[in-house]
Amino acid sequence: MLSKEMHPQPSLRLSRSDQRFVAAMIILFALAGLVAGTPQVAMWFGFALAGYSAIANDSIQTLGTFLASNSKRTWVWQWLFMGGIFIATTTYSWFTYGGDVSYERLTSKGFEIAPTEFSVLQLAAPIFLLILTRLKMPVSTTFLLLSCFATSGNGIIAMTTKSLGGYCIAFVFSIVAWYVLEPKMTRAWRGEASKWWRPAQWIATGLLWSVWLMQDMANIAVFLPRGGSAGPGLSVAELCGFMSVIFFGLGLLFYKRGEAIQEVVNEKKGVEDVRSATSIVFVYAIILYVFKIVSKVPMSTTWVFIGLLAGRELACALRRKMKHSNEAPFKAARKMVLKDLKAVSIGFIFSIFLAAMINPVVGDALFD
Hints:
- This protein is mainly α.
- 71% of the residues lie in helices and 0% in strands.
């Protein structure tokens, strides 16, 4: 008879890191229940959680390639650079739009009314986002956080349409762009990268980070007063508190070199190369900026980014297949694209389900 030693049973014990994470989530859920009845406290509690969780999950699309290609460099200067851009971008919006830090995304129809009281589930939404980020699942922070506070079904439908359209446009555009440019880039980028590529990457990533903030700051600021045409905005003291929380949370993210979800970017072909990383960032920044000026309706930038990466992976794999008549690269790329699409689709369904539980407006808009 074989001994148990010869057939070891798989361990169900959590690692020390996972144990600390589970304990932290339990504490946060308990705190959400405690502060829900005190709007002024709940407002800042929800914002602080939303600030870190949204940036941590969306970091793969804004800072992911930057973190991957600068993994051997000190995190402090990266943090100060991106933190400075955050402060400048936020301050500009606050001055320009009468105390609004969301670039008027929260003044669009369906989101213009600031909450005056909070349910436990509304405060728990960013906690669920932290859990999904830990599970390496890219989700739409727009749908998970913003939908919980929507006041009309039209806003939800417009946001969904714009987000899905963004995925399709980014997917098609990146297939065409990288199918045409990939051979030229491969030939031009042989050998060691020029010293000028590193500052070019920092500039391009800073531009993307700023444009992303213009789009997705609404997901973080949804707990706070709106500003602009939607009413009183943040005071100077509140603005300083807002920026301090995000600035130091960003420092924690850089210190950790991204959350576990960073692996979604790290597994992609060539993202460690500063030249490839810069090209991805620059194209993504252009697409996001176009969507920013098209309308003020909030959208899921996660869907745009996943579409961009999917098109790039398929275009590069198709090129290799045609050159070497080998199906393996194309099958691998297709598998990776479907895996990412599956993850973001599950995240989308979960986000909508949770938002519908929290906010009846979402259920009425999508299921009636």
